[in-house]
UniProtKB/TrEMBL annotation:
<keyword id="KW-0460">Magnesium</keyword>
<keyword id="KW-0479">Metal-binding</keyword>
<dbReference type="GO" id="GO:0016818">
    <property type="term" value="F:hydrolase activity, acting on acid anhydrides, in phosphorus-containing anhydrides"/>
</dbReference>
<keyword id="KW-0378">Hydrolase</keyword>
<keyword id="KW-0464">Manganese</keyword>
<dbReference type="InterPro" id="IPR000086">
    <property type="entry name" value="NUDIX_hydrolase_dom"/>
</dbReference>
<feature type="region of interest" description="Disordered">
    <location>
        <begin position="278"/>
        <end position="297"/>
    </location>
</feature>
<protein>
    <submittedName>
        <fullName>NUDIX hydrolase</fullName>
    </submittedName>
</protein>
<dbReference type="InterPro" id="IPR015797">
    <property type="entry name" value="NUDIX_hydrolase-like_dom_sf"/>
</dbReference>
<feature type="domain" description="Nudix hydrolase">
    <location>
        <begin position="28"/>
        <end position="231"/>
    </location>
</feature>
<dbReference type="GO" id="GO:0046872">
    <property type="term" value="F:metal ion binding"/>
</dbReference>
<dbReference type="InterPro" id="IPR039121">
    <property type="entry name" value="NUDT19"/>
</dbReference>
Length: 297
């Protein structure tokens, strides 16, 4: 029985076009996504959303809150708690401005899409309930890009709690995909007093689900997911609490995962190094000799 691996039918043609030089890869945009966790009686659960079927990219697939970096967040000195920007820059493999923008994206997108805000009035606290009308107006302004996240934090007098995030993984979309992202994955624990909601216009469903349950749904072909999404679920399986998973993030390898596509015995073999379960064999009498790329959440 087929599993729920997302695989666009146009990929083989795009792989051939990339190899023969008729397709020019687009540059990947920086992005961030967050594995938001909470404890339940049955173990940790992760917050997931289902992308609307009408979405041009990965429609119908389950994913985590996330989105692109806003360049406006890379050069504004915001109030910051947790590891300094230099430490984040080293961890993420970028400069300090880029690190701030990526961390801001992770926190902003979690607020935009799940209504959860990893920030507080001081370095040792987080805001409580964010479901009031004034908070919703601010969230809508962020979604519409009417204000940057740095501007929002400054006006609210909030400190970004980077210490509540742990860098988990990094995946890059294949070169043959028309929409490309260089995505950093983060883990975070749902702050006490806050609650999630479906605040995203891109999702038609949200759910708290145990990683083992979600992975089983994928294996049965019931839940559609991109490789980075199901990979993260399997990586969460060993941990008995949300805090254990967050603590484990510090030791995780952030080497980017990039796909390769090769011709072997008359077929295209598409694979993600280190993640053999995602390998695809596509019959092709005119497959390219070699093409490379990566994966995205």
């Amino acid at each position: 029985m087929a599993n729920g691996q997302w695989y666009p039918p146009e990929w083989p043609d795009r792989i051939r076009a990339l190899a023969d030089g008729t397709l020019t890869p687009v540059s990947p945009k920086r992005a961030a996504t967050v594995l938001l966790l909470k404890d339940t009686e049955a173990g940790p659960a992760v917050h997931m959303l289902r992308r609307r079927a009408s979405m041009a990219f990965a429609g119908g697939a389950y994913a985590y809150p996330g989105g692109g970096v806003d360049p406006r967040d890379d050069d504004t000195r915001i109030r910051w708690a947790g590891p300094p920007r230099a430490s984040w820059a080293e961890r993420l493999g970028v400069d300090e401005a880029g690190a701030q923008a990526i961390v801001c994206a992770a926190v902003r997108e979690t607020y935009e899409e799940a209504g959860v805000l990893l920030a507080g009035p001081d370095p040792d606290s987080v805001v409580g309930d964010t479901t009031g009308d004034d908070w919703e107006a601010d969230r809508a302004a962020l979604v519409a890009r009417e204000q940057s996240f740095a501007e929002f934090l400054h006006r609210r007098g909030l400190v970004l709690r980077s210490d509540l995030l742990g860098a988990w993984a990094r995946w890059i979309t294949p070169e043959f995909e028309s929409r490309r992202y260089d995505t950093w994955f983060f883990a975070a624990v749902l702050p006490a007093g806050q609650r999630t909601r479906n605040a995203s216009t891109e999702a038609d469903r949200t759910v708290w689900i145990r990683p083992a349950e979600a992975a089983a749904g994928y294996d049965r072909g019931e839940l559609l997911m991109m490789p980075p999404t199901i990979a993260a679920l399997r990586e969460l399986l060993p941990y008995g609490t949300a805090a254990e998973a967050l603590a484990a993030a510090a030791a995780r390898d952030l080497t980017p995962v990039q796909a390769t596509a090769r011709l072997r015995d008359g077929e295209i073999v598409l694979s993600w190094p280190g993640h053999e379960e995602f390998t695809k064999h596509v019959p092709s009498s005119s497959a390219p000799a070699d093409a490379t790329g990566g994966g995205r959440a």
